[in-house]
C-alpha cells in the first residue's frame, strides 16, 4: 500500500523538486536520514551512519518514509531516549486504562550532531502521516513553525510496544502562537485508527487543559485550534469539552483529503471557565460556558454547540 502511494507521490513531486533524487536505497537496513534546511527550504537525504543498524521495515527507503523503525526498549525508567532523533520521551502521569503510557516529548535542542535536528522533524512528520492516514502529506514546515514558538508534544504509547517512535497511539503538538500570547494553540491532535474510541483524545485534552492552567500566571487565558467544518466527530468532542466556535474561516485548510471542504472553524476554550479537569468532556458542568459564547457560535459559525 505504501509503495503505490509513494509512486504517486513521487510522480507529483518530481516536477517541482526534479533536481533532487528523492529515493535512495540504504544498504544493510540502514536508515534514510532526511535533511531539511530551514534557511534554504531544501531537502536532502542520506543513509544513516554505518553501524547504526536497524531492522528493515519497508525495504525501500526514500525521503517519505523511514525504512525501519528506531526501536527503544520500554522499561520502568522515567524516560526513554531515542539516539537517532535525539528526542527524549519523558513519562508523565499514570498509565491510562493500564495500557497506554503518556509521554511528554522533549526536543533537547542543543544537539551537536546536525542530522539529529532533522530526524526529529522526521519523527513528527512520519507519525502525523501515519495517524492522519495521509501518506502523501508533508508536515515539515507547519511542524517546524509550531515548535518554533515554545512547541510541546504529548504522546500515548502502548505499554507493550516494542518501539516508541513507531507505536504512537495518539499524539498532540501544541504551541504558543506569536500573534496571540494569551493562547495555547493545538497545532495537531490525532489518534491512530486502531486506538480510536477509547478516550485517548479526551485524555490528551484533559492533560492539555491542566498544563495550560499552569500557564495562566504567564498570561495564558485560552486554548485555541482549527478544525475542518465537516469534521463532526472532532467538533462535537471539542464542544463537549467546552470549546466554542468563534469564527468561520473559508478556505483556511489548504489540504485535507478526509473532508469535502477546506473550510475551518476557529474554536476557543476559556480557561477561566474550567471547573473540574477530571470530569472535563464527560460532564457538561465541568466548564462554565458564557452564554455569549454560545450565541457567537450560532451567529458566526451557524453552529448550535453540542452542550
Ligand atoms: C499488546 O497488547 C495488546 C492488548 O493486550 C495485544 O492485543 C497486542 O497483541 C500486544 N502487542 C504485542 C506486540 O505484544
Ligand atoms: C509497533 O509497531 C510495529 C511497526 O509498525 C508493529 O509491527 C507492532 O505491531 C506495533 N506494536 C504495538 C504493540 O503496537
Ligand atoms: C515569534 O517570537 C519569537 C520570540 O519573540 C521571535 O524570535 C520570532 O521571530 C517570532 N516569529 C514570528 C514569525 O514573528
Ligand atoms: C470533579 O469531577 C469528579 C468526577 O466526576 C468528581 O469525582 C469530583 O468530586 C469533582 N471535583 C470537584 C472539585 O467538583
TrEMBL record:
Residues 110-272 form the N-acetyltransferase domain. The keyword tRNA processing does not apply. GO terms for molecular function: acyltransferase activity, transferring groups other than amino-acyl groups. CDD domains: NAT_SF. Keywords: Acyltransferase, Signal, Transferase. Residues 1-18 form the signal peptide. PANTHER family: ACETYLTRANSFERASE, N-ACETYLTRANSFERASE DOMAIN-CONTAINING PROTEIN. This is N-acetyltransferase domain-containing protein. It comes from Adineta ricciae (Rotifer).
